[in-house]
Structure of 3-methyladenine DNA glycosylase:
Amino acid sequence: MDDPTTEPIAHVVVGEDGLPRPAWAATDPLMREYYDTVWGMPVRDERGLFERLSLEAFQSGLSWATILRKREAFRAAFADFDPDVVAAFDQADVERLMADAAIVRNRRKIEATIRNARATIDLRAEGGLVEFIWSHRPERTPEPMTIADIPTTSPESVALAKALKKRGFAHVGPTTMFALMEAVGIVDTHLLGSHRRGSSGVW
């Protein structure tokens, strides 16, 4: 069959299946599957949010495709992102993870993930990570026509980053937190012409 057309409909690319998507999700099958079934869908469980928080931190400075291709390896390395298990990781675990070529071997990010697991446990006394993160949902969501219209931070992501850092979390800057909010459905930044716009049921 022909390659996806590049004729834009509200700055999206229409694939051979007739569905409009942003360019980043239009060609790579892995990215397309992620976009069509996972990205932007609500995540409301502690382990799921801790995983997303961790992966967004690892993604900083890298492409999301790189992280996505290593996702199963990350899950294996970090005990399926069970905060109680990861919180108990020690220096030997850090060295084990630094030797694991299947993940991103960044000591600061590895140590931050362990720290964040401990902070996630501590946050249970305040209602838990899910309630804490979702409490920063804005009153409105962006309505982008183009990728350039999508913000990289928001007042809410700035506030969330500040609040998480106050509670002991690391590698949770405003840009990373906005990406998290996009990924878990707290905001909907699907392009207006995309077939996934509004699919989360949140907006």
Remarks:
- The chain has ten helices and three strands.
- Strands lie at 8-9, 12-14, 20-21.
- The chain has a mean pLDDT of 94.
- The radius of gyration is 18 Å.
